[in-house]
Amino acid sequence: MNAPLSERRQAQLTALIDAAERRIAQGGAASLRARDLAADIGIALGGLYNIVADLDELLLRVSSRTLGRLGEALTATSDALPLETKDDAVNRLVAIAHAYLHFARDNLLLWRTLFELHLAEGTALPAWAADDQLRLFPHVAAPLALLVPNMDEPRQTLAARTLFAAVHGIVTLGLEERLVAVPLTALEGQIEWLVRATCRGLRG
Amino acid sequence: MNAPLSERRQAQLTALIDAAERRIAQGGAASLRARDLAADIGIALGGLYNIVADLDELLLRVSSRTLGRLGEALTATSDALPLETKDDAVNRLVAIAHAYLHFARDNLLLWRTLFELHLAEGTALPAWAADDQLRLFPHVAAPLALLVPNMDEPRQTLAARTLFAAVHGIVTLGLEERLVAVPLTALEGQIEWLVRATCRGLRG
DNA sequence: TGCAGGATTTGAACGATGTTCATTTTTGCG
DNA sequence: CGCAAAAATGAACATCGTTCAAATCCTGCA
After folding, report:
1. Which fold would CATH assign to domain B63-203?
2. What's the CATH fold of domain A1-52?
3. Average pLDDT score over residue span B85-102
4. Per the CATH hierarchy, to which homologous superfamily does domain A65-203 belong?
5. What is the pLDDT of residues A84-113, one digit of tens each?
6. Cβ A169–B168 below 8 Å, yes or no?
7. Alpha-carbon distance A80 to A56, whole Å?
8. Shortest CB distance from A168 goes to which of B164, B169, B190?
9. Beta carbon of B27 within 7 Å of strand D?
10. What residue segments make up the domains of chain A, in order of their start?
11. Hey, are the CB atoms on B173 and A161 less than 8 Å from each other?
């Protein structure tokens, strides 16, 4: 899986991920069919398994791409805002949380597959997949470091994780729609309120 | 599905839910096999579909039971604490959040199936399943009402939802273990910190 | 008691699905 | 051109959830 791929293989892999991405965006991860994907990229059914070990690996590769796009969205948001004062830090955290909400909403089914991945008991996440997740972290950690410079680094990391998780929870249940549909602006308001409240808690 | 069930049918249904609960607790919702369940309760394969419309309904019935047990756990936690002052309210919210964390940890796979339910596009959640979720709400709403009595009721409801969602997010990502395992005490600390910070935000 | 007829249970069969692998086809090179 | 290695093929397999005609059981009545 780590050996250098030939040009042709790389093109096939890209086409396969493209097709899977399209199908997931349209019908969710559960709607992926090996036969459909093979037809999509014009190869025989068995040929899939020359490109990818199984459909789980394909899900991981799509997720990797989704995480990449999410990272770009957060970067764009961060770059558009100053980060000098502590108020800047709070504003940035709010903006990043809002960007997260909007990305999730605009890429709902792809975003959901990020968390639907059920890897078997013993098997660990491949390193390239774990890296994608870790790359997101600095977006939260950087403003936080400015906000509470006195806090030791392990605590900062934990606080960043907690803040992200809290926002993630609001987004997750907010986009669920299983029970009640929460308007987008209400979600934005609640996220902003929570982020500001926790920031105030951190500062003093 | 609403017609009065005969005694025998009711016993079969209970046995079936028992078996499904055991298997989910052991291997997760994805490990449910119609053939295994039929064997577990000593009926033929096809007989399952005289008890339950499909495996999704069985998942819903197990989830209903899990939500019931979660409700009992939260009730026990609430009943053990006074609720007179605003500080009581904060303490109760912290305690409830901690109880939620522990329930999720102690019933990890059953708790996860609560959120893995993927009902098809058009079909809505049965009323009896939706009720189970709504029954949980007062546990958060009651202390909140004491904490911010001036807030109008829709805002209180939204705040309760947001607080619950935030805690839920911390619990979800904290028990994930996909990337890094967070110690239980650290999770408890972060939850308490977040709840207290948001409560301070609400009061002030 | 014996039997008719409805209710219940059965398990073989069906249609999908992911994955494998012997066979065929293509490719690359001396 | 020839031929070995690599890649592609698609039939076959094992497992699923679900269906349904047939077998079985049960119950009330003559």
Report:
1. Tetracycline Repressor; domain 2 (1.10.357)
2. Arc Repressor Mutant, subunit A (1.10.10)
3. 98
4. Tetracycline Repressor, domain 2 (1.10.357.10)
5. 999 999 999 999 999 999 999 999 999 999
6. yes
7. 36
8. B169
9. no
10. 1-52, 65-203
11. yes
